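If you are new to this repository, start here. Below is one unmodified record pulled from the training split, so you can see the exact layout before writing a loader.
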Amino acid sequence: MHPEVEKLVEAGRINAAVGKRLSEVAPGSFLLSKSWGAGKVVSWSLRDKMVVVDFAEKTGQEMDLQFVLQKTEPLQPDDFRARKLEQMEELRSLASSDPIELAAHVLSSHGNSMTLDAFEKELNGPVIPAADFKKWWDNAKKIITASKRIVIPVRRTELITLRSGSQTPAQVLLTDFESTRDLKLKAKFLEAIAKEIQHFASNPDDLLALYASIEVNCRAAMKLNLGNAIELLLIRDQIAAASQIAIPAELMKLPDVIRSEYNRVSGEIAGLSAARQREVYDAFPTAFGDVWVEKLMGIVEKAGARGMGEIAKIFDSRDELGALEDYLRRAITRRSLGHEALMWICRERKEMAANVFTADVGAAILNQLESDFIADGARKTQRLQAMLGEDKELLGDMVSLMDNNEARNFGRRLMECPCFNELDKKSLMARIIKARPETETLVSGEEKAKDDELLVSWASLEARRAELDELVSKRIPQNREDVKIARSYGDLRENFEYKSAKDMEKYLGSRRRELEKEIARARGTDFKGVDTSSINIGTIVTLTNAKGETYTTSVLGAWDSAPDKNWVSYLSEAGAGLLYKKIGETVELRDQQTEQKVQWTVTAITAFVP
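And here is the target side for that same chain:
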């Protein structure tokens, strides 16, 4: 107790508790003010009840004694904040020579933990010049992290913490892993163990215990967090390989998980890095043996664009890329390939997907966009649609693979696609026209009447007219009522019925405009009087291949395709290829099952009879 204060206590003028607190603000002591920060008491006058304090930002500050007692707290002379007042050079030297000790000193003065912002504020400027702080802190973090004495958080919102006790680096790493329930953070701590596996060389039992702990976490996460569980297994296997401490036979293995959770794997690991996904797909041959190609092919359309790329690399590295290409070509022809796989094909069109990027890809993309546009719920193909605009060369590359008729049909379909606004349509068409100038009339409106005309059978024309009539007289009026009813449910932002009805309104309007344009261009025919000296619209054609097999098909109007009857539209790839061929001439047609082109010879041409 300060001598002056002790006299007051002995005289009975103040009690011992007040005397103790009063001694804490005696000259030479340090205190902390919320407003001024750390300060050192220079002098006081107990009679006048005044205290003079030197703060870092203001020296000689006179303060009321009662205010000081109530609004400040004492600081020990070895507190970091107190040392900054009189020992700045020593602290700066410590920052250079031992950043771990400096950081520990700051933290111990703040209860062993504090926010990163508060920590940096203590050092940035006063101890380390602001211009040098970032460089110093980047280097210091590496040294501090390696020491394991201080925990530097992954997220800035968490606390930087001084560890208590004297754990070994290996024990610290294990404690970090066990201390969190967050599976993503557990994965980060496991990766840290894998990088610093040398700390476990003297005690392999620690790793065996870690394997057991990972097992418990993985089994608990399998149902709800399969992707995170798989990531933990992947890093565990990495640790085992680096340490050469084998995983006990009774613990789960990645191939076993892949077999048992086959239908979920691709979707659950979609959020993992490409490298991690590759590790999972690389395990398929071990998991499925001789049928691994079939099994890996079965999840292609669920894997996403990133996973699709890794799967393709695996097929390529094992000389099975041809099987994947055949599968993708068939799926494109069937229009069943998902938007993620189509995005991968477009991105890899000059590399791994070069053999798959065909004229059919454009039609498959528009089919995906249109189907998604009219479907209920959130749109899934927005990134695919955005790719058409962002990849400046994509449309040009696409139409360069098409013949004139295919390019014009593709351009026409894009112009009528309800997914794009008018400005986007013109922008996209400009790229198509640049690659295929003959499509310019689709935008300019100068297309000749003959080229614009569609030759159709009377039956197909009547079917189109009936569809338009039903739209105008029944479906559109009913949709208007659906919109009104849905609007009455309130809160349009959360009104699923309203959104669904409005999406259908867009589709019906688009379909109506499309039908009206098509019917306006259509010219009906009964195919009578057709010229059979060559293949024309309205002829039956007999073809023979090199094996002596025969095939008969009919080339009919624009809307008359019927695979079950072997009817093809003259606008289709097969129909356009057959037109104007004569008996004895050859033509290449695509086999719909194998996607391979087969050569046929025209052996007979007769008139089609409706």
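Two things worth knowing about this chain: Residues 167-252 form one domain. The first helix runs from residue 3 to 10.
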